[in-house]
Structures are given as structure tokens and as C-alpha cells.
Amino acid sequence: MLHVDIEGLDYPAIQALQRERLAELGRRLEGQPDWTAHFATTGMRPSDLAADDGLANAPFLDKTTLHGRYPFPFLTAPMSSVRRFMATSGTTGLPVLFGMTENDYGRLLPYQMARILSAAGVQRGQRAYQGYGYGLWIGGPALDVGFAAIDCTSFPIGPGRGELVVKWLRDHRYDVASMSPLWLMSLITIAKQAGIDPRKEWSIKLAILGGQSVSTEFRNQLEAEMPDGFVSQNIYGTTEAGGPVLAISTPFTHADDELQLVNEDTIITEILDPTTLKPVGPGEVGEIVVTTLQREASPVVRWRTRDLVRLSPYPFDCKSGRRGMRKIGRIVGRTDDMIKVKGVIVFPSQIEDVIAATPGTVKEAWQIYVDKQQTTIGSMCVAIEADHRANRPKEDLIADVRREIRARLGFNAEVECFVEGTLPRYEAKATRVLPRAEAPKTTS
After folding, report:
1. 3-state secondary structure the chain
2. Domain segments of the chain as ranges
3. pLDDT surpasses 90 at 132
4. C-alpha span between 353 and 341 (Å, rounded)
């Protein structure tokens, strides 16, 4: 463990540290007009966070609240002390800007990212291909900071330029890489088209994959395409939380398809029933709600991520020795991606499970099209692509996917099959549910 003094604490000790830092946060927010007005909506003051039930009674924070304080919502540091801004993706509305002071970016983020990467198995001195995006997105800068914090040699290439990257993966002999899982699968395809065998010609043994959650079946197929001993670890975080700093799968949790909340000394992560907003128990699904304890410029209190996750049935039994840091499953969906078809609740990850397990489909290319953007819909269309190398008739692929959706979810779905290269590709976060108007017009 990188930070034994923290990672070795039991849960009561972690909670005691959180309460202390939560009280400090309340004192810092007390003099901020936006925060004072926000807490007043529930009859509280920011300083009330020091009470035993302060956080449990505090108001939630969501995109609507942030948009209402455009352009710099809840900024708690003078603009002159803000080193840089990061922004959300804007997939659900206007991007929201979050500031970072020198302390936020130069001390807190390296501290958090070093622990994340070390827990995943990244070692000092390794060569790292960094394939997340830059600009206002936090992904690339956060990984750069993390690799630097543990003395890795970083190649900050970002996404894209696949024809070049597949050669550099061979020639530069990278040990570790960070990118979206869909981009790694695309690179594998590009490499094979260029006559490069990733299993034999790449040296990479560890990938830090994030931007979207993927099914166990997809992960297993991805790992099978890579060199012997390769493993992918799933990283999770949000811009609002300060980056991909919340959780990571590790050599101790990978086999169970779980992640661990390894930065709970600087972030409080609640897992709440999205309807009752009460804590869920082990083995139950809840929404991740985040409170950042030590960010100076743009802290969040009870930020509703809308990401749904299952709390591990045994959250504290990790053999890593992190006795106070809970385990969670991979992200199973989002509350705003959840759709109800003929009374059945469906998450995109369930459709991905089917597609990934169907021989002859392009694993990274699939889409769900709905006839209207509402929680309950009358029908949906699952669009897939046929892998030209498999040489399977599209009618067989359609029949297989329809049958498995029916068997697993209990309803008949419309399925369309397209030639390879038709559907959208995503180098970072994938948008899997789209209105039917955006669907391709013709099949082949």
C-alpha cells in the first residue's frame, strides 16, 4: 500500500477522519453566499455539517442547481488563485466548469491519483501511454499527474491517431496504458489491419480503463486479445469529484469484477437508494453520491452522480489489507440511462452483456435507439454491427441477439444489423441511448 497510514485504517477510523474533515469543510463554506443560500433550502447552515447527522440532512447537489449559478457555480476561491478549470462533458446540458487551485491540482490530485494507480498495480519507473483526452476534460491531465507522482515515464498522446499508436505500442514498449476500453478494442482492430499482432508484438501488461463501464464478457474478450499476463483495471470518477479519483479495481478485486473506494479520506462516498435517498445495504444497488472534503476551489456536497452501482455483498473483506475502504461492483448504469420497456427496467450494460457474448458482432460498436426520450418507452431498437472477419450472416446475428434479450430480460426487442463501421465510435465516454431519429437509415 502506498499510504499505509491511511489505507491501513479500519472503517470506524476512516469515518472519524471524515467527520473531522467534514466539519472543516462546513467552516470553510460558512462564509460563502452561494453555499449559505443552498444550505438554507433545507433550513441548515454549512457549519451544521459538523453535527453527527449533518451530512445526512444536507441538501443534494445536481446539474440543475449548478446550471442555476452559471458560469462558475459555487466557486469558493478567488479567481486569482484558480490555476485552471475543468469541465463536464456536457452530454446532459451545458458543460459545467470546476476550478482547481494550486493545492487542488498540485497536491491533492497527485496524492489521490498516486494511490489509485498504485492500487491498480502501476509500478514506479514504468512507461505509460496516456490515451485519455485533454483540454477541459479532467481525464488526461489527471492521469498525467498520477503517472508523474509515481515516477512513470509518460507518453501523453491522448485519443486518436490509431495508425500511429499501434506502431508506438510495439516500438516504444509501453508497460501500462490509460484510455477508454472502447478505444483499446479499436486499437486492437487497427493493429490487426496493419499486420501487427498485439498478443505477440505489444509489451503492455496493464491498462487503466475508464470513461464507461463495460461488461465482464467484454473485459474478458479484451484481455484475451492482449499479451499473456495482461490485465485491465477499471477506474472510476467524475469531474465533480475532482477526476477519476473515486475507485479502482485492483489485483485483489479484479476476479470478482469489483472496485475499491480508495480515497475515502478525501472523499465521502454515499451509496443511496435513488428513490428513498437512504443508504443501501451490502449487495444492494444504489446511486453514488459524493462529497469532496479537501478541494479548495470547487467542492461539492452530496453531488448526485446518477451512476448506479452495487455495494459489494462483503464490502470490507479485501485481501489487500484496506480494511476501511469499501468495495463496489462496476457501474451498472445511470438513473438517466435507465429505460423501462413494457414494464421491464433495462440498463445499457445488460444489452452489452448480450452483444459481447454473441459471436460475430463488433464488440465496441452497438447502440440503443428509443422512439422517445422518456423513462418509459413502448419499444426500443438495438443496433449492432457484423464483424466482417466472422463471416456470419446478419440474419443469424439478429436472431441470436433477439433470442438472448428475450431470455435474459423477458421482452422482444427490435434488432438491426449494420456493416462494420456504420455505428458511432467513442474514444472516451460512450452515449449508448439515443433517440430513434439518430439511427442509421439503411441496413445491409
Report:
1. CCCHHHHCCCHHHHHHHHHHHHHHHHHHHCCCHHHHHHHHCCCCCHHHHHCCCHHHHCCCECHHHHHCCCCCCCCCCCHHHEEEEEECCCCCCCCCEEEEEHHHHHHHHHHHHHHHHHHHCCCCCCEEEECCCCCCCCHHHHHHHHHHHCCCEEEECCCCCHHHHHHHHHHCCCCEEEECHHHHHHHHHHHHHCCCCHHHHCCCCEEEECCCCCCHHHHHHHHHCCCCCCEEEEEEEECCCCEEEEEECCCCCHHHCEEEECCCCCEEEEEECCCCCCECCCCCEEEEEEEECCCCCCCCCCEEEEEEEEECCCCCCCCCCCCCCCEEEEEEEECCCCEEECCEEECHHHHHHHHHCCCCEEEEEEEEEECCCCCEECCEEEEEEECCCCCCCHHHHHHHHHHHHHHHHCCCCEEEEEECCCCCCCCCCCCCEEEHHHCCCCCC
2. 1-252, 339-438
3. yes
4. 18
**Dihedrals φ, ψ of 237, to 5°?**
-175, -175
- pLDDT for 419 beyond 80: yes
Of the given ranges (58-67, 197-206, 317-326, 369-378), which has the lowest mean pLDDT? 369-378
Question: Which residues lie closer than 8 Å to 174 by C-beta, 6 or more apart?
Answer: 127, 128, 129, 155, 168, 202, 203, 204
Given CATH 3.30.1490.150, say whether it is the number of domain 1-252.
Answer: no
Cell numbers at 188, concatenated: 486492437
Rounded Cα–Cα distance for residues 269 and 22 (Å): 12
The CATH class, in words, for 339-438 is alpha beta
The share of the chain scoring above pLDDT 70, in percent, equals 96
CB 412 within 8 A of CB 406: yes
Bridge partner list, 376 = 340
Whole-model pTM: value is: 0.83
pLDDT for residue 93: 62
Least confident interval from 156-170, 185-199, 252-266, 325-339: 325-339
Average pLDDT (211-222) is 83
CB atoms within 10 A of CB 43: 9
**Cis-peptide into 71, omega within 30 deg:** yes
Span 374-383, average pLDDT = 71
